[in-house]
Specification:
13 strands, Nucleotide-diphossugar_trans, seven-stranded mixed β-sheet, single chain, glycosyltransferase, transferase, transmembrane helix
Length: about 600
């Protein structure tokens, strides 16, 4: 037993010694094997990369040696959406580049890497492919021009989202029982109030404050809660439809009210003009009888001079017409103005031009009461119109020009809402070709001034349908050249009387001078250059400035006259420059620039 124990101890000691001796040797050898394996792997990978590179070089050399007939250039896709155009192209134009040269863009996000396409095209592509690339460049250039001509609209998504949130919140609020004062009702009312205050009248995302964005997020959480409380989608659809219908009805009512108020303002004379007329009338009757006469009366019926007629009861408007005509005339001493007004404004009109003579030009002021024997006032009153200007005898006096001026051969009729910008002496050199009326046509479709005869004339009447062509070209009043000799030969005043009488018995036309003028001068009108007379400054804010600059006469037709507050502000300066705002009476009546 003792021998066996001693042998066991010796064996354990020898095993421990063997373990302590062999372990470091094994660790050292394994470490060397790892290093040898990594180096071998690196060398192996390096050999693979060299082999792969050689294969790619061989493939590229093979591609260069192939025929390029089947090669295709990248296709340029253009996607159109309304007025927006987006292009997927190899090139784009930098807005800061004044020369507009194409620059390369990268499709890899923030990667700044660019490719020298010109160098590649020169070295590795034949001439045919280079030519195709040039074609692609030209196509890309056309697309860029289209993109520039149709600028991208700002979407303003957050502003739209705020409006949608408010609509949805009000719809959810209506789902609550009447008189309910629950926590949800209080919360959604508070959210609506806060969001409306924070957003205000903002129309762009860039104008939204941080507070508005925070309120928008709070509203979003409240709407999520509301959608859980009211999960019935059909009820929401019905409510939104009802709200849409109510909004459309309110919009329709507002438009009707706005249209009525605009027409009312157009028919109303401003307080300042009433004041001016009264001041001038008082001043006129303070003059002696000899002082009330206008000079140069011997020129009134001289047919060799250039005669203009204006029929108006507006002193300030007439002064703008006269001043603008005289200031642009090459020979103002040849100009004779014939202003016809009503008896109420005759003293004021006379006094204005006595105290503000039109330079070298001559002016005659007459009252419409002098021509009562011409007008058929009873027939005019039978015309149905809410606007008294359409049935005004002063407005219809234009159809009696040959009788009012029996010694004249030609005359230019100007409305009181026009401004003359160029010399009009060239009108007297126009060959009328036997026509009576020289006017600018208004039959060009797509323009705001476009008119058709059947818009104002009743072509369901057999007489009208047989005598007139609904597709014939229309024209405008405002600046018209009349050959009074041809007028007298054709007795067009008698023809006017005939249509006026027929219109009083049955609905032939709408009230006013334009429809009956189309009928009276049908086939007796000569079209003149459009630059003589530019329309639309009293209703169309889109009249082009280059057309105004080239025009001889600009016309504020429509209800937004330049002397009214509702007039289009962008066009008022053309009129205001010919008004004497420094006149004492004008200032005393609070008529300011």
């Amino acid at each position: 037993m003792r021998f066996t124990r001693r042998f066991t101890r010796i064996f354990i000691i020898l095993c421990l010694i063997a373990v302590f001796v062999t372990t470091p040797i094994l660790l050292f050898s394994s470490h060397r094997l790892i290093h040898l394996g990594s180096d071998a792997s690196k060398e192996f990978v390096g050999d693979l990369s060299i082999l792969k590179h050689r294969i790619e070089v061989q493939a590229l050399n093979a591609v260069q040696q192939e025929e390029v007939e089947n090669l295709k250039e990248p296709i340029l896709d253009v996607y159109r959406d309304g007025n927006q155009i987006s292009a997927v192209s190899l090139y784009t134009i930098d807005k800061n580049d004044s020369l507009g040269q194409p620059k390369n863009i990268s499709l890899a996000g923030n990667n700044e890497t660019t490719h020298d396409t010109k160098k590649v095209g020169q070295q590795s592509l034949p001439e045919e492919t280079v030519g195709r690339r040039e074609k692609e460049k030209s196509r890309a250039k056309e697309v860029r021009q289209n993109v520039q001509s149709h600028p991208r609209r700002v979407l303003d998504e957050r502003v739209k989202e705020i409006k949608d949130q408010l609509i949805r919140a009000k719809a959810f609020l209506n789902f609550a029982p009447a008189g309910s004062n629950s926590n949800f009702v209080k919360e959604i009312k508070l959210r609506i109030k806060d969001l409306e205050r924070a957003a205000g009248e903002v129309s762009k995302d860039s104008d939204l404050s941080r507070r508005a964005i925070q309120k928008m997020k709070a509203m979003s959480a409240t709407l999520s809660k509301a959608s859980r409380l009211f999960p019935d989608c059909s009820a929401m659809v019905k409510k939104l439809r009802a709200m849409t219908y109510n909004a459309e009805e309110q919009l329709r009512t507002q438009k009707n009210q706005a249209s009525f108020l605009e027409n009312l303002a157009g028919r109303t004379t401003p307080k300042g003009l009433h004041c001016l007329s009264m001041r001038l009338t008082t001043e006129y009757f303070a003059l002696q009888t000899e002082e009330q006469k206008l000079p140069n009366q011997h020129k009134f019926q001289n047919p060799d001079l250039h005669h203009f007629a204006v029929f108006s009861d507006n002193v300030l408007a007439c002064s703008a017409v006269v001043n603008s005509t005289v200031s642009t005339a090459r020979a103002p001493e040849k100009i004779v103005f014939h202003v016809v007004t009503d008896s109420l404004n005759l003293p004021a009109m006379t006094m204005w031009f006595l105290s503000n003579p039109p330079g070298k030009a001559t002016i005659q002021i007459q009252s419409i009461d002098m021509f009562d024997w011409l007008l058929n006032k009873d027939t005019l009153q039978k015309q149905e119109s809410l606007d008294p200007r359409y049935t005004s005898p002063l407005n219809h006096l234009r159809f009696y020009l040959p009788e009012i001026f029996p010694s004249l051969n030609k005359i230019v009729l100007l409305d009181h809402d026009v401004v003359v910008k160029r010399d009009l002496s060239g009108l007297w050199h126009i060959n009328m070709n036997g026509k009576v009326n020289g006017a600018v046509e208004t039959c060009l479709e797509g323009e705001p001034s476009f008119r058709r005869m059947d818009m104002l004339i009743n072509f369901t009447d057999p007489m009208v349908a047989a005598k007139f062509d609904a597709k014939s070209c229309t024209w405008a009043f405002g600046m018209n050249l009349f050959d009074l000799q041809e007028w007298r030969k054709r007795n067009l005043t008698g023809l006017y009387h005939k249509y006026l009488e027929l219109g009083s018995d049955r609905p032939l036309m709408k009230a006013g001078t334009l429809p009956i003028g189309w009928m009276t001068f049908y086939k007796h009108t000569r079209a003149i250059d459009r630059r003589w007379h530019v329309l639309g400054l009293g209703y169309d804010s889109g009249v082009k400035l280059n057309e105004i600059e080239q025009a001889a006469v600009i016309h504020y037709d429509g209800v937004m006259k330049p002397w009214l507050e509702i007039g289009l502000q962008k066009f008022k300066p053309y009129w205001k420059k010919h008004v004497r705002y420094e006149h004492p009476f004008v200032q005393q009546c609070n008529i300011h620039d």
